[in-house]
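Lecture 7 notes: from sequence to structure.
We start with the chain below.
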Amino acid sequence: MPHPFHVLCEMGGKPLNPPYKNCENALTLQIRSLPLALSAPAAICYSFLRMEFKNLRLEKRPPLAVVTVDRPKVLNALNAETFNELSEVFEQLAADPEIRVILLAGAGGRAFVAGADIRELASLTPEEGRAFSLRGQGVFRRIETLGKPVIACIQGFALGGGCELAMACTLRLAADDARMGQPEVKLGLMPGYGGTQRLTRLVGRSEGLKLLLTGGLIDAREALRIGLVDEVLPAAGLMPRAEALALEIAANAPLAVAETMRVVDEGFDLPLDLALLRESVRFGGLCATADKNEGVQAFLEKRPPVWKGQ
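Predicted structure tokens for the same chain:
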């Protein structure tokens, strides 16, 4: 049986845009020039669109989609091909107006995603390692900022890159047999796909550093206690609960959902005054939408709204 800890190392990719600079004047200028256009995905036709993948399963059940990493013999480890398919499938789902919420799971019941084969690390040069890290960061950041909620459904191991993938999702539900951690220091490495940054933001600096520096694993209950996951359920109830939560979210106005996630992400590390200014800009933008008019009218008429995403 493959070792449960793997570190993702399939790469090549473009660097991410730099984060917001720690300069209030520059941020104010950014906010003043912020377009009112909302973040709903356009209906773009990609030449590479497809429904069949080698290492993933994609099931579309509008308004939901379920993406399953399907390599159970290797604990759903992410090789280069799987990584590329993840990038492709999420671009496809971002452009599909019928899909409003996405569930991300691992096949086989033993692992969500355990990472990739450690042997592939042996020959990495510093330049290759940096490219590998940037590739993973770019794909995970795309998932994080997709404009549609992505719910990680974690059963079994979510270690190294698998834990980093879960943290890039909007919400995380865990089965009671889940085991999570960032054991990279045990290989003389550190997380390279955002683990050092997302973990400390999710659970706090002290709890995050304890996991990062010890390389230890935690169970689902401990992950819930520190805030790494949002709910813990029996394994048999994981997907039904995830689907129910997804449908509850999907019942709301898609533009409002997208803009709420966007402004939380934009404002997370900003000074409060600047974050509030971003909120007001996004709020004003939503006031110009057909969905806002429909939502208010439906409330007054005591009927369910019919959202158009416009």
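Points to note: The first helix runs from residue 24 to 32. The chain has eleven helices and ten strands.
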